[in-house]
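WARN  no MSA supplied for this record, continuing single-sequence
INFO  ligand: phenylalanine
INFO  echoing inputs
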Amino acid sequence: MSAPNKSYDPVEVEALKPEEIERMREEALAAFAAAADLEALREAKAAHMGDRSPLALANREIGALPPQAKAEAGKRVGMARGAVNKAFAARQAELEAERDARVLVEEAVDVTLPHDRVAAGARHPLVTFCERVEDIFVAMGYEVAEGPEVEAEWFNFDALNFDPDHPARAMQDTFFVSGKDAKGESGVVLRTHTSPVQVRSMLDREPPVYVVCPGRVYRTDELDATHTPVFHQVELLAIDEGLTMADLKGTIEHMVTSLFGEGLRTRLRPAYFPFTEPSAELDMECYVCRGASVGNPGRPCRTCSSEGWIELGGCGMVNPRVLVAAGIDPEKYSGFAFGFGIERMLMFRHNVEDMRDMVEGDVRFTRPFGMEI
Ligand code: PHE
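INFO  complex generated
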């Protein structure tokens, strides 16, 4: 009969030998250390921590061992697996930190770069041109003055010495907002010119008065290549002691030089405006042909239609009756005024052939004027 086996010698399982376990642990740690990126680490994990890894296979052998050996081997394998898990987690954290740092650099966004390619907007050439004209006069000491576009008929006509039956008041020229009320108070119109700002400026200030008044004006014209019911004027008014027509001409010559260059002559042609006396139309020499196209069919000029002169606008010495209406003593003060259309000036200065281009908002029109803002 056989005696109980007291000196049980555990079966030597090759895979569970301490040096084997140690080797598996070392190999796993070396593989993790060698993994250069998270992808390589994932592969090393499958090889050394996966179901078919040496340590997992060794772990499976434990079950077959007798209790004492089972406990020892279990502890050994458990410790090795714990160390491997820890080493994996540490390396993973390391590689993730490296990746995050790299991504921060590689995917960095330079917020100072232009964020899109949508063209920047710019102001309309009519506006920038108006401001250029204003600047010329501001540099001479003029003040910019503005008035309402919906204006009292009194400012637009009466104070400017227009007779009650003056044709300019008639329906075909003026947009009436409301007629005279029952008490005969002034009617309301869309201003037909910037000249009412002359009267407002004189009432607002003590002489001397030097103002430049840009603004939108309205007339009952159809929109076509050379007319628009809404357009812009710049008005100039100077009131001082001893002003003469020579001051007017010199001032306009300075503006012409500033806008079109040196050496262009200007001329005055007699005209009539109720609010100036004497009145004139002011022409400038054509800045393109300088008169060379006149009587010279071989060299026509589109800018001045071969006339040699370009009409700028109306002007004159402020009518004493207007001074009186604005509370200024005509015995002491005299003044000159000048008004011209911005659209017209933009047309001949930039060869714009169709006025409608200025109001249609097509960027192909505005782009060649540049991106002045
Ligand atoms: N207001 C006039 C017009 O619109 C122009 C003008 C202004 C004439 C000032 C003389 C003096 O036609």
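The chain has two domains: 14-106, 125-369.
INFO  checksum written, moving to next record
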